[in-house]
Amino acid sequence: MFRSRNRNQGQSQNRHLSRGRRLAGVGCVLALLVGGVTACANIDAAGAGAGSDGDDRPVVLTTFTVLADVAENVAGEHLRVESITKVGAEIHGYEPTPGDIRRAAEADLILDNGMNLEAWFEQFVSGIDVPHAVVSEGIDEIDIREDAYAGMPNPHAWMSPTNVQVYVDNMVAAFSELDPAHASEYAANAAAYKEELQGVQDDLVAALAPLPEEQRALVTCEGAFSYLARDAGLAEQYIWAVNAEQQATPRQIAATIEFVRENDVPAVFCESTVSAAPMQRVVEATAAEFGGVLYVDSLSEASGPVPTYLDMIRHDANTIAAALTGTSK
Ligand SMILES: [Zn+2]
User: Fold this and answer.
1) Rounded CA gap, 295 and 124, in Å?
2) Cα–Cα distance between 170 and 167 in angstroms, integer?
3) pLDDT beyond 90 at 18
4) In angstroms, what is the span from residue 86 Cα to ligand 1's centroid?
């Protein structure tokens, strides 16, 4: 599961890059010898680098906030976990900045979701030699049914806490390879966090279990809930399959309106990282209410409703259950 264009070289270079944070000039020479000109140029451009604040822990860079939160739970105090994309960012079609690429070159490990979630990822890491791990490896995939992505796996596998237990195992393997001295602590952190994940999974299923048969339909903007719908026994309908430039076409909106009318769906939802305007058109054309904002592709700020992954799953399950049963009114 550990991906690097040259794993051994990447590991070796990481040690030099870490040293480079403390001794910038020397690090540049070492990186030049070991990793090539690109790494050296990146260190120069970044100046003293991420360690300039005195934090010399290895840096784990994730592609989005949800992965960062899960990774922090596994890493504990021994790794410095960061996210490339910020809270609220659209993550599918994100365009990395030169600063992002510099951060990636300085990282000791990069975690991506995989399953074509980060369309920008290959280009993002193509010029750097830092190991990366695909955290979704080994999960039970659900394929997308429609649109340009039909037949490809739905990338939103983290919307099932059961799947995230697999993410956690993959993180433990990657962190233990990066930092073998703390491998037993990563395993212990993971075991504790997996218990919490299982608890949230059980709560999710319990929260949605009372929905009557005719209300067991989840209608959202993006088709990001395939795994949650599977876990909770809901039918899934969406306006568009995956956030992209071509979305919310008249045909897609018409199909959603038809589904809501035919199934008497009481409430519909939209995700926090996209405009709810297309779903408002569904609300106007049907008897359904807007049931609330769901969080999928990004956590909220610390002061917001879903600062952690566990908060996010709880929030979404409760929002869906309340709106579909009418208890949110
Ligand atoms: Zn998404």
Assistant:
1) 25
2) 5
3) no
4) 14
52 has a pLDDT exceeding 50: yes
Centre of ligand 1 from the C-alpha of residue 92, in Å: 6
Cα dihedral: 152, 170, 315, 160 (round 10): 50
CA-to-CA distance for 13 and 10, rounded, in angstroms?
5
Q: What percent of the chain has pLDDT over 90?
A: 72
The Å distance, Cα 271 to ligand 1 centre, comes to 8
Distance 291 CA to ligand 1 centre (A): 19
The arithmetic mean of pLDDT across residues 180-202, rounded, is: 97
Dist. CA 182–CA 223, nearest whole Å: 38
Average pLDDT of span 71-79? 98
* Distance of CA 115 from the midpoint of ligand 1 (Å): 12
Query: Token digits for 238?
Result: 């969406």
- Could you tell me the distance, in angstroms and rounded to a whole number, from the CA of residue 6 to the centre of ligand 1? 31
Taking each helix axis from N to C terminus, what angle separates 250-263 and 277-285, rounded to the nearest 10 degrees?
Answer: 40
CATH class, domain 210-325, is alpha beta
Alpha carbon 226 to chain centroid, angstroms: 15
Residue 225 Cα, ligand 1 centroid: separation in angstroms?
Answer: 9
pLDDT at residue number 327: 72
Domain boundaries, the chain: 210-325
Global pTM? Answer: 0.82
Whole-Å CA distances, 194 to 115, 140, 164, 186, 187: 22, 17, 8, 12, 10
CA of 296 to the centre of ligand 1 (A): 7
Distance 150 CA to ligand 1 centre (A): 15
pLDDT at 43: 33
Place of tokens 């995939």: 141
Q: How far is the CA of 195 from the centre of ligand 1 (A)?
A: 26
